[in-house]
Design a protein that fits this description.
It is a single chain. By secondary structure, the chain is mainly α. Helix content is 76%, strand content 0%. Helix 1 packs antiparallel against helix 7, helix 9 runs antiparallel to helix 10 and helix 14 packs parallel to helix 16.
């Protein structure tokens, strides 16, 4: 009866998600504190039942209950305990339940660590997260129920895919999902800001820590997954341009731009339109990645081979998220103008260029990932877009980003003098070029890409050391001044 208990808990979690989505939103609209106060206990109760549902599914795997379809398809009684546990998320249905539980965890974290937010704003943030959660739990229950029974049961399961019985499977999916889902918090803050009309430095200050934490999780997940794919599948290069790898890379790129944009909005009140759109875009690309992986439209060793009905559900959710968000943005667009002027040579300008180029890079990766799908859908033939396209577009676009990454911190807000920046960073740049050439000759691999890559790596390291030294000197001076 434990799987039935988990199924029932998931249904209760959906009910609580709908309560969290509707009641606080009505309360915020009518300024009713009692209704707004429902958001926190509803979110916390939802997490309790999601954890109960996930624990019930895990129990079926651990105890080798092969009357459960999912356990029979993805586990075996001789499988080591650790991989029986990780087998829970080594499939479409279980990983979706992990996604929903991660979202519940993020939502509860917001209720605990953002108590200083205005009640009406907090109610709207939690309501948006409630709608997202309701969408994913509905998707799980309607099209991807992990608690389906196999009648009659089988004596033994088919075991987890041997490629997934790896330490990377223990770490990679949870980290990746925490990053994916974490951008829903930045999205919820952006939508709440649009709903309240409060798109000032305060909401950027509230949203920025959540965005940074989500970005760190996603970065760690991508790094672990990249290393795992490298030694497990034998792929070469530092990035593989597999469609599913791109699905996680695209929100990472926009998330990087979002972090920088939030810093400018918080510090100077500028880039408000950019920040809102980047928050919407980062989460939308997370949903797009979910669609690509779970719809069956792409061929990849990472993809879940599922029926198109599931893909249509996520596609509908994606269209709703993007459509409603852009309508809200258009409604509030007149209030987003302004934010102060700044000179061409300034930290503001470098961050603006950073945002624009990262958005263009994301667009180029998105085009290379989706273009074959569009051609196939329009019956115009089948093509494969591989590393030559991505490397041709990616390297020229990202080179200025890496250079600006270390120039920006040395610049002053609003305006600076170019000569001062050249004097500070000129020697570091020359040493970086020299190191790039020396190392390239030393390893006997002198190509322009090798020299460029080594030079940029030396540039980042040396400029970071110089920046850290400047901060330490400043901190010591301030301490002595006291």
């Amino acid at each position: 009866m434990i799987p039935e208990l988990g199924h029932f808990a998931l249904i209760i979690a959906l009910i609580l998600a709908l309560v969290q989505a509707i009641v606080p939103l009505v309360g915020a609209q009518r300024n009713r504190m009692a209704l707004m106060a429902v958001a926190r206990p509803a979110a916390q109760g939802q997490l309790v039942f999601l954890v109960l549902a996930y624990a019930s599914l895990t129990w079926a795997f651990v105890t080798s209950d092969f009357s459960l379809q999912l356990a029979a398809s993805n586990s075996h009684s001789d499988t080591p305990l650790m991989y029986r546990i990780t087998g829970v998320w080594g499939n479409h249905e279980g990983s979706l339940l992990l996604w929903a539980m991660a979202l519940g965890g993020w939502t509860v974290a917001v209720t605990l660590f953002s108590r200083n937010l205005p009640e009406a704003f907090m109610a709207r943030v939690l309501a948006v997260l409630g709608w997202i959660s309701a969408g994913f739990i509905s998707f799980t229950l309607i099209t991807s129920n992990p608690f389906e029974r196999l009648l009659p049961g089988v004596a033994e399961g088919r075991d987890l895919n041997p490629l997934l019985q790896d330490p990377g499977m223990i770490i990679h999916p949870p980290l990746l999902y925490m990053g994916y889902v974490g951008f829903s918090v930045a999205f919820a803050f952006a939508i709440a800001a649009l709903l309240t009309g409060r798109m000032d430095a305060a909401w950027a200050r509230w949203s920025r820590p959540w965005t940074i934490v989500a970005w760190v999780f996603l970065t760690a997940g991508i790094a672990v997954g990249s290393g795992w794919a490298y030694y497990e599948l034998g792929w070469g290069g530092w990035w593989f341009w597999d469609p599913v790898e791109n699905a996680s890379f695209m929100p990472w790129l926009l998330g990087t731009a979002l972090m920088h944009s939030l810093a400018v909005t918080e510090k100077r009140g500028a880039f408000r339109s950019w920040t809102i759109l980047l928050a919407i875009g980062a989460f939308s690309l997370s949903l797009l990645g979910t669609f690509l992986v779970r719809s069956g439209v792409i061929t990849s060793v990472h993809a879940f081979a599922v029926d198109p009905a599931r893909g249509l559900f996520i596609l509908a959710l994606l269209v709703l998220v993007i459509g409603i968000s852009l309508v809200l943005f258009a409604w509030r667009a007149p209030r987003l103008a302004g934010g102060g002027s700044f000179a061409l040579v300034s930290r503001d300008s470098s961050l603006l260029v950073n945002n624009v180029v990262l958005a263009v890079v994301t667009g180029s990766v998105l085009l290379g990932t989706l273009y074959p799908l569009f051609l196939d859908a329009l019956k115009l033939g089948k093509i494969s877009v591989g590393p030559p396209y991505f490397e041709t577009t990616f390297i020229p676009l990202m080179t200025p980003v890496v250079i600006l990454m270390m120039v920006g911190p040395f610049m002053r807000w609003k305006g600076d003098v170019l000569g001062r920046i050249v004097r500070k960073l000129g020697p570091v740049l020359l040493v970086s070029v020299a190191l790039g050439l020396v190392i390239a000759f030393a390893i006997d691999h002198v190509t322009w890409r090798t020299v460029l890559g080594l030079t940029l790596a030396a540039w980042v390291v040396l400029a970071s050391v110089q920046l850290l030294a400047a901060w330490l000197i400043l901190a010591r001076t301030l301490r002595l001044g006291r």
